[in-house]
Amino acid sequence: MKNNRKSIIIYLLLVFTISYLFEILAVMPWYAKVNSGEITDTTRVALVMALVSACMFIPTVSVLLTRVITNDWKNCYLRPNFKGNLVPYLIGWFGPLVLVVIGAAVWFAFNPEAFTSFTNPYAEKVPGVGGIVIFVALLLLSPLLNCVACFGEEWGWRGFLMPRLHEEYSFFKASMLTGLIWGLWHAPLIAAGHNYHQIYGISSVWMVLAAIGAMCILSMVLAVLFGYISERAHSVWPAVLAHGCLNGVAGLPLMFTSVMYDPTSLTDGTQSPFNPFVGPLSTGIIGGCAFIVVAVIILIVMHRRERKESA
Questions:
Q1: At residue 242, what are phi and psi to the nearest 5 degrees?
Q2: Which range marks the domain in which residue 177 is found?
């Protein structure tokens, strides 16, 4: 237990130090300029997005450094363990897509005036059959298309931190702690406008803190689902697929909404149904309602299982 806690502390020191230095010094200033509209040049925007993607590999780098420092290579969670674990992989591949669609549908039920037919965001017309087929194919392949970058994060959170915390605590506590840490890890990017568009220096400090808090809640909800399927397979790969699927389909509801989020709508009195704290994206309480329900069910199931095992 002592060595386990030592590894956790070393990992957290590494992942937060490296990430915060890189995000605050190299990523945050440029990302804020992109979100505020100050930077519109395609090349520079692509460079900023590449820097954001680079952040996703820091947890894996931190795991490698931790394992080298502690000379501990057990329980790496790298074997796929396909045999007998079809369900976790199916959940990882398709689950986030289904939950995003359900959450968006609930949000549109409350905001029917915001719903529009499927449109191309880069052209004011409905795409042809070929375009729709390609779009659906990309959605279904998003777990594979995003798996490299998502592995960069998941080997840190679900392949290292979550299993080790679960050795110390119940599944509930381990997943909540993992999610809280994961959410706080995003803090500089959230302050720069990632996910919630509350930009430090433009939005009020309270709105930025609210965005960071919302990200922590979202991360705790996702940590339950991602942690559960990885633990069932004793492998990081179902969580990698789930993370890749979510990243690929997260913006899907915007393809069906006729309004875009206006960051000033929360402060200048104007009303816009698109609020990232609410929906239709899964970052909001309504857009993410399906994820919340599934997380609660998983926590109940795991609590009963652990209580039965300890009896």
A1: -65, -45
A2: 76-310
60: in domain? no
CA–CA separation, 156 and 226 (whole Å) = 12
Q: Return the pLDDT at 265.
A: 47
Token pair, residue 111, equals 């905001």
Total of domains in the chain: 1
CB atoms within 10 A of CB 101: 15
Assess if residue 22 is contained within a domain. no
Half-sphere exposure of 141 (CA within 13 A, CB side): 7
- How much is the pLDDT for 267? 44
**Domain presence at residue 54:** no
**Rounded Cα–Cα distance for residues 143 and 239 (Å):** 10
10-residue mean pLDDT profile of the chain (311 residues): values are 85 97 88 77 80 93 96 91 95 95 93 72 50 69 91 96 95 97 96 87 88 96 98 97 94 78 47 77 95 97 91 71
pTM reported for the whole predicted model:
0.90
Angle (nearest 5°) at CA 46 between 251 and 13: 80
Take residue 252 and report the two structure tokens written for it: 């899907």
Closest CA to 64 of 168, 2, 150, 155: 155
**How far apart, in Å, do the first and last CA atoms of the chain sit?**
22
Task: Evaluate whether residue 46 is within a structural domain.
Answer: no
SS3 for 120? coil
Asked if 158 contacts 227 with a C-beta cutoff of 8 angstroms, the reply is: yes
